[in-house]
Design brief:
The complex is a heterodimer of chains A (about 450) and B (about 120). By secondary structure, chain A is of the alpha+beta class. Chain A has twelve helices and seven strands. Helix content of chain B is about 45%, strand content about 20%. In chain B, α3 runs parallel beside α4. The chains are: A alpha+beta (about 450), B alpha/beta (about 120). Chain A: GO terms for molecular function: phosphorelay sensor kinase activity.
């Protein structure tokens, strides 16, 4: 009887523990408990079923119960395990009475036997009931697990949707940011071209205002030179003393020279004013089909020989990379020619300057001045690049090169109108773009982009 | 030959007088000056049929050279003087308009006096 109780108690406890996560910790305990029960049974039979062995069973059962009460992990099976208490109690009471009051026990033997049986049955009824409850609980747990599973799946799909939407939004955000950056760039460009346009207008206005007084300066100084000549001639007709005559003639000569100087510098100012006026002049003539490669080549040579005429020492490698498929493009030939002339003149000036500086510093080494032109037709656009390995420009110079009157050349050598005019011709005259890339001390590259209709 | 110069710049007077000193002295040219279109018309009223040649600036405050040209062509159809327009704005539109309104010649500033002298001597 005790063996069955002990065996089922262990069995039951192990099963009940299966529903919790504590089983692995106690697996060995149950294994040994079971061995122990079988061992007790074996010893019981080997020892020829001594009566006192029920004590061992009862103590073992109580020990088991004690373990269940001591360890928190067994909380869920305590109440069911308690059901063996009446059985162990009745069994111990019966054994105790049998030992101490054998006669009393003998007379109530049947009663004790019945009680023990009832207690025993009570155990199993309780266990059976607990088992049923456990099964129900297990079922419930399974249902809950399934619900959880469904919920988790829904959650996952929601999370997926959220992630997808988030990605869409992020992408949209990035696109918007890009659009904003583009807008900002366009705005800057607009501001820049607007600035250039208004500066151009201002320049032209100033030029017109200056031209009239300047004409007077030039005309009067010219006429004064003539007057001096006349005066010089008239002096000879008078009978003034030769010494006085020479003195007077000396003064007249100085006056005449002064007037010539005025004329000379007036003419200089006049050429600047002319340059300024060209700036504003609405593009001369009509656009006509032009072989841009030939035009570029022509002006490259023109600029080169222009510089050579002034500086015999100067030389530079001219590299051309022409796209032969360009054919003819409708442009304003004179204006575009002026742009080429400006760009090439600047390029040659830059390489000449670099060579001069290197020579002065005694670090010429194997520096070879080179000016390059390349053209390319692509996607209905004409790309022209003029690059040199000259002095390059620092950032603060680069920022100003398209402004009228900005020049880095020594006084009298540059008007500061070349690039500003080129900018005007490319942007306003051709609806194109003129950009510059430069590394200070190394190189400069001008890029023209003109849309071809 | 009597030439009327019309320009709002008063210094034009001394400039012309000095530039054409010899011709004036020699009696080839006789210059009169008007400093506005209105003044020029008034002068012509007072000195009818005297002026052979008019040199007029276009950009003047008040009556412009173009208006003056129009008035001259309508008011003095008989014994019409020669009219030469002088302007700093040598663009095609200005030129065409002046010629259409009956200008005889068109010069751009700065005036090349040698060229002008030759033209005047041809008359």
């Amino acid at each position: 009887m005790h063996f069955i109780v002990a065996f089922f108690l262990v069995q039951f406890a192990q099963q009940a523990m299966q529903h919790t996560d504590k089983l692995p910790k106690w697996a060995n305990f149950f294994k040994y408990a079971r061995y122990y029960v079988f061992m007790l049974l074996a010893v019981y039979y080997i020892a020829k079923q001594p009566d006192m062995f029920t004590w061992v069973w009862n103590v073992s059962l109580l020990g088991l119960l004690l373990v269940f009460y001591k360890e928190e992990d067994f909380q869920p099976i305590r109440s069911t395990a308690q059901s063996i208490v009446p059985f162990v109690g009745v069994s111990m009471l019966s054994d105790f009475l049998e030992l101490v009051f054998p006669s009393f026990h003998k007379s109530y033997d049947d009663f004790f036997g019945m009680a023990l049986l009832f207690a025993w049955i009570f155990c199993f009824v309780i266990w059976f009931y607990a088992r049923k409850q456990q099964k129900a609980l297990a079922q419930e747990r399974r249902d809950r697990l399934r619900d959880e599973e469904i919920a988790r799946e829904q959650k996952q799909s929601l999370e997926y949707l959220v992630a997808e939407r988030t990605q869409e939004l992020t992408q949209q955000k990035e696109e918007l940011q890009k659009a904003i950056e583009e807008l900002k760039a366009t705005q800057n460009q607009l501001i820049q071209s607007e600035k250039m346009a208004s500066l151009g207008e201002l320049t032209a206005g100033i030029a017109h205002e200056i031209q009239n007084p300047l004409n007077f300066v030039n005309n009067f100084s010219e006429v004064s030179v003539e007057l001096c000549q006349e005066l010089d001639e008239e002096i000879d007709k008078t009978g003034i003393d030769d010494n006085d005559k020479d003195y007077i003639k000396g003064i007249i000569s100085d006056l005449s020279q002064n007037q010539q100087k005025i004329t000379h510098h007036g003419k200089r100012a006049d050429s600047i004013v002319k340059g300024m006026l060209q700036h504003s002049r609405a593009s001369s003539g009509e656009k006509e089909p032009v072989d841009v490669n030939a035009l570029a080549d022509e002006y490259m040579r023109l600029a080169y020989h222009g510089l050579r005429a002034k500086d015999k020492e100067f030389n530079a490698a001219l590299t051309t990379d022409f796209d032969a498929t360009i054919g003819t493009v409708k442009v304003l030939p004179q204006d575009l020619g002026r742009v080429f002339l400006n760009l090439f003149t600047n390029a040659f000036y830059a390489v000449a300057e670099k060579k001069r500086k290197l020579t002065e510093a005694g670090q010429l080494g194997d520096y070879k001045p080179e000016v390059k032109i390349s053209t390319k037709k692509f996607d209905n656009k004409l790309y022209i690049r003029v690059s040199d390995n000259g002095t390059g420009m620092p950032e603060h110079v680069k920022a100003k090169i398209f402004q009228p009157f900005f020049t880095t050349k020594p006084t009298g050598q540059g008007t500061g109108l070349g690039l500003s005019m080129s900018y005007d011709i490319i942007t306003n005259g051709h609806g194109g773009v003129l950009e510059v890339d430069t590394i200070d001390g190394e190189k400069t590259e001008f890029r023209i982009t003109i849309p071809i209709a | 030959m009597k030439i009327l110069v019309v320009d709002d710049e008063e210094d034009v007077k001394s400039l012309f007088e000095q530039k054409f000193r010899r011709e004036i002295r020699g009696g080839q040219f006789e210059f009169s000056f008007a400093f506005s279109g209105e003044e020029a018309l008034e002068y012509m009223q007072n000195h009818p049929s005297e002026v052979v040649m008019i040199l007029s600036d276009i950009n003047m405050p008040g009556m412009s050279g173009i208006e003056l040209l129009k008035r001259i062509r309508t008011d003095h159809p008989s014994a019409p003087p020669q009219v030469m327009m002088i302007t700093a704005y040598g663009d095609a539109a200005n030129h065409d308009q002046a010629m259409q309104l009956g200008a005889d010649d068109f010069l751009t500033k700065p005036v090349n006096f040698n060229e002008l002298k030759e033209k005047l001597l041809l008359l």
